[in-house]
Write a structure and sequence with these properties.
The protein is α+β, with helices and mostly antiparallel strands. β17 (469-473) and β18 (479-482) form a beta hairpin.
Amino acid sequence: MTAHRPPFRDPALPVVRRLDDLLDRLTADERLALLHQFTPGVERLGLAAFRTGQQALHGVAWMGPATVFPQAVGLVATWHPELVRRVGEAVSREARAMRAKDERVGLNVWAPTVNLLRNPLWGRGEEGYAEDPALTSAIAVAYTRGLRGDHPVHWRTAPVLKHWLAHNNEAARDTSSASVRRRVLHEYDLRAFRGAVEAGAVAGVMPAYNLVNGRPNHLSPYLEEELRSWTDQELLVCSDAGAPSNLADSQAYFATHEEAVAAALRAGVDSFTDHGTDASVILGRLRGALDRGLIGQEDVDRAVRRQLSVRCRLGEFDPEPGPYADEDRFDTPEHRELAREAAEAALVLLRNEPRGGEGPLLPFADDGRRIAVVGLLGDACKLDWYSGTLLHRSSPLDGLRERFGPDRVDFAEGVDRVRLRTASGTRVRVPDAGAGHAVQDTGVALDPALLAGRTDLPPLTADAEGSELALIDWGGGVLTLRAPDGRYLSAAGDGFVRASADEPGGWVVQETFRLEAHDGAHLLRHLGTGGYVSVAADGVKVAAGRESAEAFSVETVERGEEAVARAAAGADVVVVVAGNDPHVDGRETEDRTTLGLPAHQDRLWRAAHAANPRTVLVLVSSYPYAVPEAAARLPAVLWTAHGGQAAGTALARVLAGDVSPAGRLPQTWYAADADLPGMLDYDVIGGRQTYLYFDGTPLFPFGHSLSYTSFAYEELSAAVDGETVRIGCTVTNTGAVASDEVVQVYARAVTPSVPRPHRELVAHERTSLAPGASATLSFTLPVRALGYWDVAHGRWTVEPGAYDIQAGASSADIRRTVRVEVAGEAPGPRPVLVDGLAAADYDEQSGTVIVDRTKVAGDAVTPAEPDAGGELLYRSCDFVDGVTEAAVAVAGEGAVEPALADGTPPARIEVAPTGGPYAYRTLVAPLHLQDVTDLRVRLHGQVRLAHIGFVG
């Protein structure tokens, strides 16, 4: 240290010492100010302003142009951790390069999202990785390592994992509670986060909006009990936007905001993302909490230290510029090539069957044949809410024309072309915008939700002829309408409807409508505002209610399937490109309601196939579809997530056979909606969900893809070596085409004592093989990975016995199996006389949910429907020589009935009102049990059961 360098500026000192020094130099008010997302600078110490939360899910987002990689669900479809690590590295380099020119670009990046894709209807599935915790963890480790960088001290960016914990529904996402039993918590949800944290590449986490077991995630006791026990490194917990206010507002979990922020801070939340850039509201609440004694200075200091630790790792306090000072790699040729490579690697070939004595339709022969590209996404390069702005664009049409020549590729979008006629006989017209109104400079917004709609263009009018509009039904009657010049109809803040949007988008999408039948005509409802479209002398506008709405007749000029059929009939092969717009159907705030392909697009593939049986269906989507008829009738089907800036080029290269497809499905593709559990059923074990437990036959299984070649699996071996299972597998390319193969290794317990997965992914590797080449792959598996959470003893347990180690090309295409014997710990009966029974430690249940015992910690169980009641099952309870009484800790009112598994009449314990859901009392009743037996407990009414004790 020198006279001009305080200890916190000295990189030679331990981080703890530097943080101690800096914390001591900050005043109490300066420390408090650091608890908001947007923290002010401290000029006297030379500290710059700082903000948490740069979006970087698959490229730097919300800060203008940047390299756009495939969606997160596309990156995981590569099953290629090293490739994903390189993508993370490129994103972090671009973040540093962009920050050098614009200090608003942050280095605390909120990515990746590791919530498991339990239900394919979840609106935010595009942000996640997989339904499997091992695959999710492997890709999360890779991406965060790329974001962090490999410097031993300095981090290139500081990743924050989203969204802690068990968050898979958008409907009522801030008020619904996920009931997560102990086994699901430990075997499923926590594992998605743990790997990246233990790898040391994560700076923190963001809690989710929802509640888990009745308690808001921003108060999760698992932040301290689990998350921070996985590492010695300081972790920064950043709230989700507006979530601190929800604690007292929509969730009504506390009576005052002061109580709410105090509880969140004590639970482990360190940075409050609330009220945008205005920190005054949150800071006022925190000061109020301090004044009321709800928190102390030590609580503030603990959170401040965690934020300063992240900033220190980013090199902010170092006197020298650091290893990233000259980082300028932005939109480089290498990044463009990486975007293409990632898009190619993510493509999944779902079906490619021979037809009529011919070989498979794919790949296309480069023999001069004509190709028709048809479908709503045929000339689209869609972005999602967390995308950056495109620097380069390649749609499927662009890619195929580039690869095969523009003279050989025709296009028909398949929109319905319509005019809207008013009751008076006029038709809606899109006025000429004029050259001066062609482009709007929106600048760069830290939050694009704040961008307002355009008001600089003339509103729609009506005249005798009107304008022909392109109508697309995205499913469920949700429509977009596009003007002849390609701009979408949109409503701005002044209420007028204009052709003003390049694409649907925004936090509240202003470009979607719905036609509602009305007296032989239709009302046109604007979904963003809920109002109805009217036609007035000064233009077309959104009215407040139905009474002033215009009644439109829809005049169809041409149906989309007619144009598609013409194009298909004139081609040698047809590529139908269908899928979703990530801003319209299924997105943050909106779950899907069905797995089905929207009816408009279903009509298009059928029309194309009827006109030309040599038809390929390419699904470009953020999630799986149930398309059993297409999968049975069409010769070839592919899937890719929205592939970013190089999507079209990648698709064309795969269709042409320049690259053999080798992506794999990260989710089960179910055959029908009936295969799915309810959106709020988080019990993957009891609900038989995901490939781990699903008992039906999927349309396409987890891990599935075909190839343009074939592979043989040989010489699978597995041997237990102490605490490790060593696995070897040889795979050979037996075809004529060079290709990657993803070797997947699964394990299954042969005779488990509790319900276990059908098989569970434990390792995988993507390897490239030339024709005739072989590769011997080695995997090291901790024996611990064969275990499960033993609810009877509250610990992770590996059961002794036989385990099958399986290798194959998907979870349903197992090529080789070997069996190993593991000397684990035999499960014993529940020692109920020692600790009694925690109610939430059940083995099975029906009709119940887990709720919060207190607002700080602990669980209880209550009937999901008070009038219906519920039942809990605890297996192998050891009552030794016998008990005579049961003591139940209960709150609420109702009844508790312990009963033997054989239906022996229960001992009913009536629970009179205790004074509220958190007012527990202990009630004692006679209960005579002995030896080892199963115990059932029936719950009635609004009773909450926390614990059962037994007296001998």
